Amino acid sequence: MEVSRHWRLKKQRYALQGEVCPHCSVKIFPPRDICPDCGLDARTPFQFSGRGEVYSFTTVRDAPEGHSEQVPYTVALVRLEEGPLVTAQLTDLDQQDVEIGLPVEMVTRKLRSDGERGMLVYGYKFRPLLRPAA
Amino acid sequence: MSNNTPTDPTQDVFIAAVSLVKVGEHWDTSLRELANHAIHHVLIEANGLRPQALYIANAFAPILSRQTQLGALVADFSGLRGIEASTVEAAGASGGMAVRQAYLAVASGTCDTALVVGVEKITDKIGPSMLAALSSAADSDHEAPHGITPAAQAALLMRRYLHEHEAPADALAGFSITAHANAVSNPNAIFRRALSAKAYSKAAMVCDPLTIMDAAPSVDGAAAVLLARGHVLPTAPDLPRVRIVGSAASTTALALHDQPDLLTLTAAKQSADLAYAQCGLSAKDIDLFELHDQFSIYSVLELEAAGFAEAGHGWELARDGEIGLEDRIPITTFGGSKARGDPGGATGVYQVAEVTLQLQGRAGDNQVPDAKIGMAQCLASAGATACTHILQRT
Asked: Domain B9-125+219-232 maps to which CATH number in 3.40.50.720, 3.40.47.10, 3.90.180.10, 2.60.120.620?
């Protein structure tokens, strides 16, 4: 894996930093510079809360390279409370059953590894919400 | 448009010849040999008609075979050295997109003939490296690093579909059962055996709720179609002529999480609507539909996107017995990706070749009675790219 490629993504990977469209106010994650809703420039940074809920999920048993040591792992689409969906793994599940609608929060974990001499890539995963929002 | 043009050039593109290689694990056959097999047989069928341009549909050779520039490689190896040739890549939709490029070349008048060969060599890699290659169709910054696979994407959609529409757990069984039933009599299929409802229900889980019987095998294959203007075709053909009356492609966001509505295949719907508009047809006019059932949920979503069912009701077409060879809208008539096999970027070329066989009455035991108009639609990953062709017997 390419060091510069992951370095470029550090703000979104480690801090869930996205964008807010200055024209239509829609919140954007991952950042993409052109608003998918109104089509205008959107480069204003926006800090997401990291809270959301499970929109859909599945368990991967046959993994691609870089993920073999994690199997089985749960991949989900998480609806962030600010609106966007993200693809991410669920973690810290212990024996908890996952269901659509489960409240989750972002944590930073190891995403993939490329062998003894390769990179470890860290980034966001989501775990069941420890303390429900007040 | 020139006053000398005898007809609308967009309505003067015919399928002059087709060929299909059996889909499977071709351990003893290389990428270039697979392509050559398909080209060799399509040129025999073309009976002297020579291609003026070559479009290669391929998705994964740069990763799986460390080979780019398939245009020169395949042209030279197949005895077509010198011809204009290049690859068209759109992951699983490469086949449809290559047919579309050939269609545009012929419809524009640039060429009288254009050859499409879809070729994919999957099985030189196995396990995690093969899965990583197939997963490259997903967003490599925002999906692949989370361990997503094509099966996982389909499973995320399948779970959400069953949840939102309160469909039963075995709602999609009929799609795989139909595909397998049709593959039994297809000599080019990898799985020529029937699938029972019981076997479907007991199948091993891949990505819950998606089982191995909801998933197509990703294997090797090659197919070819030769497109030509009407004036170069034989005046007294042995077979009915088949014309491309609709050709359209569309894209939407690459990542599944960026879709405005996950359960609507936006690109599939848009490409189908554009293709329908070109020929003034609609879903009710289509006699058979080769859709891209790499995973069974995509059959459902494509039927809905192409207007054969309302949103949330596509699964009922299998339950109600409407998708068999003699039913309202036959699909996967030669087994589809599920049972004929899914040769990656070549799949869309198989589809167009299969629709042609149906319209020419050459489908044998797989024949859809009196098929006059057929549609082929292929998808890439979870539908980010879609390409639709409508063919008509003339």
From this structure: 3.40.47.10
